[in-house]
Amino acid sequence: MILRMRLVLGCLTLLIAVNAAAQIYRWTDEKGRVVYGNEPPSGTNTSVVPDRITSYGGPPEVRRAPTAPAPVATTIPVVLYATSWCGYCAQARAYFAKKGVPYIEHDVEKSAAANAEFKRLGGRGVPLIVHGANVMRGFREQSFDALLARNGR
Question: Hey, which CATH number is domain 54-150, 3.40.50.150, 1.10.8.60, 3.50.30.10, 3.40.30.10?
Answer without folding.
Answer: 3.40.30.10
